[in-house]
Amino acid sequence: MKFKNRIEDPLSDEIKHILKQNTFHIIITGDIGKGKSTLSKKLLEGFTINSGFITERVVGIPKIQSGIYIHSAKSIEKEYTKQNRLAILDDCSKKGECIIQERFPEVFDTIGVSYLDGNGLFLMDEIGFLEKDSPHFLNRIDENFESDNSFIAVIKNKDINYLNALKNKKGNILFTVGDDFTYNYTYNL
Prior knowledge:
- The protein is of the alpha/beta class.
- It has a single domain, classed as P-loop containing nucleotide triphosphate hydrolases (Rossmann fold, 3-Layer(aba) Sandwich), CATH 3.40.50.300.
- Helices cover 24% and strands 30% of the residues.
- The chain has helices at residues 13-19, 36-44, 106-115, 135-146, 161-167, and strands spanning 5-6, 25-30, 51-58, 67-72, 85-90, 99-103, 122-127, 151-156, 173-177, 182-187.
- Strand 9 (173-177) and strand 10 form a beta hairpin.
- Helix 3 runs parallel beside helix 4.
- The longest helix is centred in the last third of the chain and has 12 residues, at 135-146.
């Protein structure tokens, strides 16, 4: 079953019903800049996030090294330090594409794992390819996918076995964001 909705439109009654369930596992995928995080924020309206993480690409901000940083999903304040930097970016093009100069997978296995502790509603924004050398972090993500915790997980739209396995887990509701800020959703029963 597929539906097509615009991200800026009100949520359908069916989606509101899904969000009222005791447990929901929502996956959002799509290309960069198409509205994945915007859709996750919309789905989370009225909820309290108990745990999780947000990754952020930072480029061209004075006094902050260009890179990808991880933050707690339940904290408003953000830090930009070596302790939460996942990668250093270099040589960003005018199109916004950057080259990863150096990766720090151990940050996922320390700070990242701590952000995935707890119960309740989790936000994981975004799961991608930088985590591939972080076994503790990947294991904790798997544990959350198998748990009774509700979560919204934004997953990079890449053809990577681990990401495909997460997207296709039984019980997930998969939202795919398209080019025109619309989305479809399907149930993995």
